[in-house]
Design goal:
The structure is a homodimer. By secondary structure, chain A is of the alpha+beta class. Chain A contains four helices and seven strands; from the N terminus they run βαββαβαββαβ. In chain A, α1 packs antiparallel against α2 and α3 packs across α4. The first copy, chain A, is elongated and about 50 Å long. The structure holds threonine (THR) (2 copies). One threonine sits at the interface of chains B and A. One threonine sits at the interface of chains A and B.
Chain lengths: 161, 161
């Protein structure tokens, strides 16, 4: 199956929130996201990696306009679930490689990572699906990142998410 | 935009590898995934959360049949990049809620998390895209998880990924 990269999508309207050191037990993901859903805040990426020693970190992104409201809701949640701290950043941007047949081509993801590395762009967060590899980077690297990824994948135009 | 859940997909052919304590600097994601791509190993999920104190964890999933070969490749990588350790598990399964308009409905994700929590099913890893919320759980919970998610979303049949 030949992987085809259809385009590079980006979204500068992202703010990242990381709830660190949460108990890694059933119900915690719901106790974090439930109040955000109840407040009708649109969530884009949700990322959680495997825990260690009974805790893990739970991250998600919201539109920049919802950043402060989200932090306000999480203050109560943090106490309630006993999270170690909340780390947040509204100066991030998402860059995604969009294609078909991604699943069988981790070569596309590794090309993306190499291309960003060559420009000294640090990858803060990664999430993939069958048709997309998405990374969060410092917003100051958005234009540079999109430009060099274009070149690396031989594409002509971008798509703003 | 009304979110519609189209179905529940699952994949029991997953093995999870977590490269823990990697330096959080440009180039590391490529140094981990490059050798896996060069070996033509199919990678499904790639997850990395925000780092702390200069390190982070980098996780990905491969087909179970590639588990040992992947671990073999990573032994050299671990030394080369100075990762703290490699934590792996081939007894996991992926469950995904597939729908449209997911992005604006974190209510779907929170319903999924609540439903799994009510059965005492721990969520090991989470990754989302615009059309999917995917979680990794212990393989022993696959059938139970799929069944209760069906009921929670009022669906009739499943789709094996
Ligand atoms: C951390 C959180 O995902 C927890 N493992 C849960 O199942 O809710
Ligand atoms: C950990 C890894 O993603 C690193 N931040 C990189 O950019 O490669």
């Amino acid at each position: 199956e030949k992987a085809v990269v259809a385009g590079i999508a980006f979204d500068r309207n992202e703010a990242r929130i990381n709830v660190k050191g949460v108990p890694d037990k059933p119900g915690i993901a719901y106790q974090i996201l439930g109040p955000i859903a109840d407040a009708n805040i649109e969530v884009d990426m949700i990322i959680q990696n495997v825990g260690e020693n009974g805790t893990t970190d739970f991250s998600f992104t919201v539109p920049r306009g919802e950043f402060q409201r989200t932090l306000g809701i999480l203050r109560d949640v943090q106490t309630h679930i006993g999270a170690a701290k909340i780390d947040a950043d509204d100066k991030v941007a998402k860059i995604s490689i969009v294609g078909v047949g991604m699943r069988s081509h981790c070569g596309i993801a590794s090309t993306m990572f190499r291309t960003l590395a060559e420009e000294g762009i640090n990858i803060q967060l990664i999430s993939t699906s069958e048709i997309k590899v998405s990374v969060l980077v410092d917003e100051k690297y958005l234009e540079l990142g999109v430009r060099v990824l274009h070149k690396a994948f031989g594409l002509d135009q971008t798509v703003e998410a």
